[in-house]
Structures are given as C-alpha cells and as structure tokens.
Inverse folding.
C-alpha cells in the first residue's frame, strides 16, 4: 500500500474541481426538482424521481470520465512518470477508483436526501427508519450496483487500450473491449434477474408499505412488499465484478506502452 | 553491465524506430545519444526505461526487465510531465511519495542551484519547468539516468545551469544516457558518443578517442550524419 496516500492526494489535486462541481450540481438538481408542478402529487413524485435518476446517471458518466483521463496524461507525459513510479499498478488503479468512489458516495447520500424530501412532498408517510433507508441504504446499494462497476470498467478499458494499442491505434482495442463487454452485459443482466431474491431481500420502507396496503392500493400494486425489497444478489455480483476488473486493470497497468 | 540491448528492433505501424540494435552500457559513464530527428534516440531511451516493448530482440536492465527494475532507473522524457498546479513543494511531495530513492534535501539544494522560482508550473517559463524537472530527476539516487532532450527549447543560461548540475550530481557508479541536439554545449560531458541514423547505430565511439584524433564530437556529428 506504499504510495497510496500520495496517489490519493494526487487524485485530489487533479480532480478536486470536478468533485466540487459534482457536489455543487446537487443544488441544480434540487432546484430542478423543486420547480416540478404537476396535477397530482403522484405525478409530481414520478417526475422528481426521473430527475433524480438522471442526476445519478450524469454523475456516473462524469465520474467515469474523471477517473479515466488517461489520454491527456499520456500526451503531457505524466503517465510515463506514473508508470515508472514505485507503487504497483494495483495501487495506482485503486487510488483512482477510491477517489472517484469517494466523490460518488456523498453525492449518493445527498441524492437519498432528495429522494426522502420528494417522498415527503408527495405526502408519503416516511418514518425515521424509512427516511434513513432512503438516505443511506438505497443510495449505497445503487452506488455498489451501478457506480462502482462503471468506474472499474472505465479503468479497465483505459488500461486495456493503453497497453494493447495495435500499431499505435487505440480505437481497435477500444472497440473490441466495448463491444466485447457489451455483449456480455445482456446475459449477465438476465442471469442476475433470474437469481435475484434467491437470498432473502432487504425490506425497505416498512411502515410505508403498511400504510399503502391499508390505503387499499393492492389492485395497482398486487404485491407491494416485493416492490420495496432490495435484492442482495446484484450487489454482491457487481461488487465481485468490480474487484475482478480492478485487479485486471492493475495487472494490465504493468503492460502499458507509452 | 547496467543495461544492454540484444538485436533490438522496434516497429511503429510501418516505420521501424530502431533496427537490430545491440549495445551495452557499463556503469560509470556518460553517453551522448546523438542523431537527427527520427533517428531512434527517444525510442532507445524508452525501451531502456521499459515504456516500450521491443518488437524483436531483448532489453535487459540490471539483469532483468526494465519495468521490473524501474525503481533503480530514472527516465526524463521529452514531454513536460508536470501538472500545471504543481509548484516545487508539490513536486517534492509527489516525488517523495512515489520514489523511495528521492532525497528531499538534495532536491532543495538543486532547486536553489538551478534557480527554480516558487511558482506553479503553469506560471513558469519552459526553461524554469525544465529546471524543476531536472531537479526532480537528479534528486533521486538511481544507477541509470535516461535523459531525453533535457535541453530542448531551453534558453542558454538554463542550459548551462542544467549541464553544470549534471556534472555536479553525477556519481561514478551511475550511468547517464543523454540525448540532445545541443551537441556543442554538451560534448564536454560525454565519455562515449553514439550516433544514430535511421534506427541504426552509425558510430559508437569514445569521446576521448575522437579528441585524441583531433576531431570534436560536433565535427564527427557532421561527418557521420551530415
């Protein structure tokens, strides 16, 4: 782990403007959600949830670009210095990943806060437990299932392209990698869907479910309990995949030519 | 032997950067790598640093692969390599954290000797950045120094400071490979000169032998590569 502290500091110095901009963008999303006016509260909640999902996706893309900025470093020569530095490729990759994930987590928690706020605005009876689940459990689950694997995938893509440029061209291995992993994504998603809830799911918003059931909404939501159960399997699978991709990227780092 | 190349060829797309080159670099010499643009100087240095992998042949540094022995070699590339936000203090923290053989005291002495201003790199001139990079490089205690054009685009006074620092900091158990176009200014440094042309070694000579024949390195450069 020698050098990890310095590399995290380097990530902070290189990317702090990006991180600040991302966290600052929460104000923009809050403002956008606050502007939503619809005929009924349910519709208003739906539009706000769409905005929140967009905030998540935009953030994941920005973070991926942030930690995958290898091209500029290659052109400017910093990549050469990093490749020849003491820490192993695993440590370099870990530092980039940890910094980006460290930016993602406060963003995720803040988005959870916005979710709880939107729910309350829509009149949903969120008790303290449900509010905490909205602020912590759901966003952290989302970060584990979506953001962490996306970051690891980008790091693997960039090291793969740097290492295996054919005749100096990066687009060939880049295309092979994107299409190759893209082809694997469909079957992976199917498999995760099939095995989801083999292990007990994590119940969320317990009191809310009771209230909704008492409101006799079960005709629209035949099994409301299922709607608020988080499956464990996608989280474990995606975290394992994340670790695998990071290890592979760290190994490929040693093969990079610049 | 600190480093050797055995029948090394490096091909980029359709161009051969280096063609079937075999060389040995013992410890304790300063070798000048001279040649016109595109002659293979940078390719040779990158191969020794482990930043490139040969298409054919073998590169050995400290009896192993260059990348595996990267802790014992220093590579100063042509590209700037400084982050714009970096000042001398950041550079010190960066180097001390990533290179075990980096000496903070020596770095500070070098900063003074090379007259590096306490500004961010983006506010420095090219010569000032070049001097800061050289201070970062020479503050390491490596055995093999691979310096690719450290004098390029730098003003005369900065070049003089850089060259005198190289002389001052060179240790007898280390080897420096220096590629430069400033042949006349650097020739006093060299124990050995390697003239490269179109990826091949056109001449490998001891500088002292050339001088004893009454030929300067500059004159030989014109003769061999002109």
């Amino acid at each position: 782990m020698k050098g990890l502290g310095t590399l995290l500091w380097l990530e902070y110095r290189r990317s702090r403007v990006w991180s600040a901009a991302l966290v600052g963008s929460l104000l923009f999303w809050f403002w956008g959600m606050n502007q939503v006016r619809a005929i009924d509260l349910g519709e208003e909640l739906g539009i706000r949830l769409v905005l929140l999902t967009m905030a998540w996706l935009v953030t994941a893309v920005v973070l991926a670009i942030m930690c995958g900025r290898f091209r500029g470093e290659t052109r400017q020569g910093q990549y050469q210095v990093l490749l020849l530095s003491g820490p192993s490729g695993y440590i370099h990759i870990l530092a980039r990943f940890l910094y980006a994930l460290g930016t993602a987590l406060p963003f995720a928690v803040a988005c959870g806060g916005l979710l709880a706020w939107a729910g309350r605005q829509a009149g949903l009876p969120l008790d303290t437990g449900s509010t905490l689940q909205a602020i912590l459990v759901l966003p952290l689950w989302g970060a584990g299932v979506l953001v962490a694997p996306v970051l690891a995938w980008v790091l693997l893509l960039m090291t793969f392209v740097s290492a295996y440029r054919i005749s100096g061209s990066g687009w060939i291995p880049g295309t092979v990698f994107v299409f190759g992993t893209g082809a694997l994504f469909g079957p992976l998603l199917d498999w995760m869907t099939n095995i989801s809830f083999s292990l007990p799911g994590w119940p969320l918003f317990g009191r809310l479910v009771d209230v909704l059931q008492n409101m006799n909404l079960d005709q629209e939501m035949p099994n409301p309990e299922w709607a608020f159960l988080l499956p464990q399997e996608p989280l474990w699978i995606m975290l394992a995949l994340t670790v695998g991709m990071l290890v592979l990227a760290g190994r490929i780092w040693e093969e990079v030519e610049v | 032997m600190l480093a050797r190349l055995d029948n090394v060829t490096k091909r980029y797309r359709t161009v051969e950067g280096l063609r079937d080159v075999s060389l040995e670099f013992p410890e304790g010499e300063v070798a000048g790598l001279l040649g016109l643009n595109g002659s293979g100087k940078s390719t040779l240095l990158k191969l020794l640093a482990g930043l490139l992998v040969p298409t054919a042949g073998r590169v050995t540094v400290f009896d192993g692969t260059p990348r595996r022995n990267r802790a014992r070699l220093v590579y100063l590339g042509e590209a700037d390599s400084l982050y714009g936000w970096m000042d001398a203090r950041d550079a010190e923290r960066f180097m001390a954290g990533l290179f075990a053989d980096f000496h903070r005291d020596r770095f500070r002495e070098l900063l003074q000797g090379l007259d590096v201003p306490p500004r961010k790199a983006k506010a420095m001139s090219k010569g000032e950045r070049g001097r800061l990079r050289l201070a970062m490089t020479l503050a390491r205690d490596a055995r093999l120094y691979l310096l690719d054009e450290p004098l390029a685009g730098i003003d005369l006074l900065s070049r003089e400071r850089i060259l005198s620092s190289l002389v001052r900091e060179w240790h007898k158990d280390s080897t420096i490979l220096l590629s430069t176009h400033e042949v006349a200014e650097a020739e006093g440094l060299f124990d050995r000169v390697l003239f490269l042309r179109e990826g091949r070694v056109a001449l490998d000579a001891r500088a002292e032998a050339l001088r004893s024949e009454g030929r300067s390195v500059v004159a030989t450069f014109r003769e061999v590569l002109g």
Summary: Chain A has a mean pLDDT of 87. The interface with chain B takes residues 3, 5-7, 9-10, 13-14, 75-78, 80-87, 167-168, 254-255, 257-258 of chain A (CB under 8 Å). Residues 203 and 229 of chain A are 4 Å apart (CA to CA). The first helix of chain A runs from residue 4 to 34.
